[in-house]
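@channel sequence for tomorrow's demo:
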Amino acid sequence: MALLLTGRTLGPVSTESGTLAEETISSVTGQLTGELTGRVSGRAGLDVLSIDPMQVNAKGDPTTRITVGKQVTPDLFVAYSNDVGSTQGSVYQLDYALDRDFHFTSIRDRDGSVGGDFKYILRGKPPAAPGIVEPAAAAPPLGAIRLEGELRLRERSVRRRLRVRAGRARDRAAINDGIDRLVEFYRRRGYLMAEVDSHETPGAGGAVDLTFHVHAGPRVAIDIRGTHGKGGLRQDIAPIWQKGLFMDDIVEQARAQIEKRFRDRGYLKVSVAAEVLRNEPGLFKVRFAVRRGPRARAEEVRIAGTGQLPEREIRKVIRTTPDGWFSRGLVRDAVLEEDAAAIRVLYLSRGFPLVSVPGPAVTLDDSGRHAVVTFHVEEGPQVVFGRPRFEGNSAVAAAVLEKTAALPEGRPYTAGLLDAALVRLRRYYDKAGFPDARVTSRPLEVPPAEAGRVEEPLLVIEEGTHQRIRELSIAGNVLTRDGVIRKALRIEPGKSLSRGELQAAQTRLYGLGIFRSVSVEPKPPPEGAAADGRRDIRVAVRELAPLTQAFGLGYDSEERLRGLYEISDRNIFGSGRYLGLQTRASELVQHGTLLYREKGIFGGRFDVLGSAFGENEKRPAFDVRTVGTSIRISRRITHATRTLYRYTLQDVNLSDASAAFDESTLRLASVAASGIHDTRDAPFDPLRGHYLSGETEFFGRAVGSEAEFVKMLAQIYGFKEILPRTVWAQALRAGAAVPFGVSKRDPASTGDTVSGVPPSERFFGGGDTTVRGFARDHLGPLDASGDPIGGEGLFIVNEELRFPIVGSLGGVLFFDAGNVYRTLDDYDVTRLRRVAGAGLRLATPIGPFRLEYGALLDRKPDEARGQVFFSIGQAF
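structure tokens (generated this afternoon):
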């Protein structure tokens, strides 16, 4: 799993990655073991869910945030943190390992500020048993470094790319990296068939002599005539030389590849001629002459051979359409293949297991511009599920198995439904103590002429032996107490043995964030022992270094020069609990947070995160000093749904306020309940799915607060891919703060003469994540100096169309409407400020960089025409 996440094993991760990535790898590897609960996609990489917000050094209370992250490269980790109770922007943090202990961390904070810090990380040593030292075999030094073969380039340049020096310790990884660099060096200079390998021989004095065998091959010169985009075509066919052996075959494959590329773009009458101009040991020159011809457009798309499915349903799944007002009608080979596959998948999902859909026939006119496309479908008979039959079961009754399989009798027969039934049966047997049970199905045999067949699937079961846990042994823990491990395992002697439970136990151990490797496996039975079904379980762990410190110096667009210091112990006294201190200071902001985390409380179903924090911040309208403490209990109900419960107590002191306000310290205390449901396919740049969150926060004297009000916020985001890479994104955010008690009777005692809600708890809008025609927080009421006051009510609607332009560059058209209401008496969803705009977005592995302009559609005389924003990440 560590290899999937970072491209390296857990050992190197724990010593070379940053503290952010290191904590995350150990915490989430278990969640991905056995069953990948993260999402894997070529577009977004592997997204890691539910990282603790303590790993992001941002402003504000960390217990209000939900954080996710992604390992982009072995050295780059990015985290994304969203505040469930605020409309302020999300926090992005990037951690790049310059080397083992020196990192660069960049953060976009929730106020839109962007900064970067250079950090030196000082790690403690992993726990080791007293008196036991793991022997480390010293690598022998390198002796003579020789180059053999046909170099064709200067030897000095070749050696520089290898970066291997005599006298250094042999490092096979460094040698392999040098070979890769040298091969790439040759290929960039046209030696596409270059090969390099190495050979070791014993040298003098225990050294190792290293010989590199270089076969440069001929320099390949590729000349392409008759078309544009020659550079892209060369890159497309260059790998053919890298993998090929015989020049004649390579040239023919390259010619066919160029032709295919044009056919995939709609040039069906393209012809490509290849001519070898020179074929010498040191130079191979080839010319490809391209005659594209016209692009073919479909005059008609026919579907032949159908009768059991409506033609309109088939047309919905294919992308090739006739030329018309709303369709270019291009006929592309690659799309035709996808369309044929889509038709076959449709028929299979409707119970036609013998369906056949060959590649479509394309008839071109003499000009090559007009085509008739015909898909030929051989449907075969439709098959439906009957009642399943079972063979080989003895411990479990057939009626129980039939209920567990849950095969829908009378529904179309599909391999997907049958496979799902097999999985359910295997899990049932595993939970019942038959971990080695096998469940298979007999192949389907349907005569081609038999229509309306009812198939009663035969499920063959090999139950194996019922097994129980006899003893549980734990090894490898030096600091961590056995009780901590046993609590997370939740498996006990005498219980039925289940591989699913063992995997879940391994997941929970990784989730503690204190181990770099975990193994929970049944021991093989001793030779000659009686097969009584009792198995011993061995738990083996390797611990991470518990203590980590970080020193940093950086710069921020708002704070200017700043410094930071962090220290954490992830395994206090071997208890599996986390305690950490984060500090950050600049001229504008001084922030410190003491964090405590414990996982698996209340029977292991809940996690607790506590913090004590203090912050001084200079804002446009006032200065705020906050000191407080907070505790959050969270529970993950499903993969997409999480609930959070929080208590916060803080003293807030406002000074230099332009509004009439009592500058004495105000104590705020609240209890809050939040819910999140997130089905987005990628939190950094989603194509589809939705995000729902809601929070209700109660401030009252009953919980220790001087101000009394109830604050509610709901956020709904929706994403739909309406065309390839074209996304329609929508957002609705609505909030209200309802004063009661003393805050309603005497607003000035807790807020100002108009609103009893303290300024620090009011809603604000405007900026690159809300309504983009206004500067940050400047939507809604302003004071006489033009500074934002905030309000008791908020309503914002966003509509966005995100579309590709070329390569990684995309565009966006957006419409924002919203308002911030001074009091709830002013709340009117028809009285909204409206903004329309457009922008450019550059897609990157860490999310899009975006440049946008929002223009006010209802501009007032004293307002700017609009705002320009440059930021990272989506607006929502």
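heads up for whoever presents: The domain at 219-291 is CATH 3.10.20.310 (Ubiquitin-like (UB roll)).
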